[in-house]
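quick one before i forget lol
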Amino acid sequence: VQLQASGGGLVQPGGSLNLSCSASGMVFSDNIMGWYRQAPGKQRELVATILSSGEIGNVAASVKDRFTVSRDNAKRSVSLQMNSLKPEDTAVYYCNLRQGGIVFWGQGTLVTVSS
């Protein structure tokens, strides 16, 4: 399975960005997709996950009221709509897919929130 993420960039505080990630290869119908992030000098942390059914999995408390995760099973994709961005949201965001006990990672896309 390969994951290709896009949509990162530079945005001012209070702005919005939408990240997208497409999966290719042997993708099972039953999987969990989501987003993690890693800020400079910090450990990678979960942002949000979503099940194949569309049910939201886990969402970090720090983004719960600002970020929305969604998926399109037909396109094998997962998206992250990020609103009201803060400087502390600056990080490399990684797309993630879990299936059959295996975890796959995308290459990461940089989000910088700065004025």
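fyi The longest strand covers residues 91-99.
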